UniProtKB/TrEMBL annotation:
SUPFAM superfamilies: NAD(P)-binding Rossmann-fold domains (SSF51735). Residues 6-287 form the NmrA-like domain. Coiled coil: none annotated. GO terms for cellular component: nucleus. Keywords: NADP. It comes from the Eukaryota. It comes from Kwoniella newhampshirensis. InterPro entries: NAD(P)-bd_dom_sf, NmrA-like, NmrA-like_oxidored. Belongs to the NmrA-type oxidoreductase family. This is NmrA-like domain-containing protein. Pfam families: NmrA.
Length: 309
């Protein structure tokens, strides 16, 4: 760690988790008396393909954040992205990595390349956002198993790491989420819990994933080498819909059942639905709350969303 603070590079900075981490690190700067220098100051290098986009402009306005323009294929060429920060080898205190889903092969290739780049750049702490596996050795969900392979590669790389394993996102329930999330929540709430309608489904907010990643970067001595599952609430399907209606005054927005059935048949949503119904997540939420006292449950999450919109 530099005496002038910590340099953190964020892959996937404009996505839900990356931006949540940047928000949390910026808030950390603000809450530490707006120090311009010092060991508790974060300088965040937010990698962006489109610095002029509204999402990047918002990030650039935050305390301690530098938006770095990178090539469209920067996930495939991460060494070039690290070079673009202007930081030399040994000057990067942390890298956060999260990948949007394209395919298992692409995700695995990109993640390995980013880990290799971090090792070459002598990064001190690598935080990887994976997925919770419900304590199973094989979830039968290809995207999840790809993340498990990334975890194994990261452990063997020699790069100091923290692995975060979030459950499904509360953010996916929102009407502002992309259309594919409307399909996903239709599958969850209408086409999943056939065998075990009583099963509680665990969810977590992206805000809290970002906050936990910030915890890891702020106290690497505590979190390096740890693998942490993250959940903020545990609810049946009926409880999810009831709380949503109570807080927002509306029903959860769903889409056509025939479309959801078709997508479930041809995509990873099918194996996910079977996993949720037959096994489900088993995260100790109270333990997560001990580490993150303001952890959001569904009601608190929806109240924050309602106040914003």
């Amino acid at each position: 760690m530099s005496g002038q603070g910590k340099n953190i590079v964020v892959f996937g900075s404009t996505g839900q988790q990356g931006s949540a981490l940047i928000n949390a690190l910026s808030e950390y700067n603000t809450n530490n008396n707006n120090q311009s220098t010092g060991p508790n100051r974060f300088t965040v290098y937010a990698l962006s393909r489109s610095p002029a986009a509204p999402s990047s402009i918002r990030l650039a306005s935050l305390s301690g954040v530098k938006v770095i323009e990178v090539a469209k294929d920067y996930m495939d060429e991460p060494l070039k992205a690290l070079e673009a920060t202007g930081l030399a080898k040994g000057q990067i205190d942390g890298v956060f990595d999260v990948q949007g889903y394209v395919s298992e092969a692409i995700e695995l290739k990109q993640a390995k390349a980013i880990i290799d780049a971090a090792k070459e750049w002598e990064v001190e702490h690598f935080v990887y956002s994976s997925a919770d596996f419900g304590e199973l050795d094989d979830t039968k969900i290809p995207p999840f198993e790809a993340k498990r392979q990334v975890e194994s590669y990261l452990r063997s790389s020699g790069v100091p790491y923290t692995i975060l394993r979030p459950v499904q996102f509360l953010d996916n329930l929102l009407p502002s989420a992309p259309f594919q999330m409307k399909v996903s929540r239709t599958v969850l709430l209408r086409l999943t819990f056939y065998n075990h309608p009583e099963r509680k489904h665990q969810l977590v907010s992206c805000r809290d994933i970002g906050k936990f990643a910030a915890l890891a970067f702020s106290d690497p001595a505590k979190w390096t080498g740890k693998e942490v599952s993250l959940a903020g609430d545990s609810l049946t399907r009926e409880e999810v819909e009831k709380i949503y209606e109570e807080v927002t005054g509306k029903d959860v927005e769903l889409t056509w059942s025939f479309l959801a059935r078709f997508v479930k048949l041809i995509s990873p949503l099918g194996p996910m639905a079977r996993f949720f119904d037959d096994h489900g997540y088993k995260v100790d939420i109270q333990q997560v709350r001990r580490d993150l006292p303001d952890l959001e449950d569904l009601r608190a999450f929806l109240r924050r969303y309602k106040a914003t919109y």
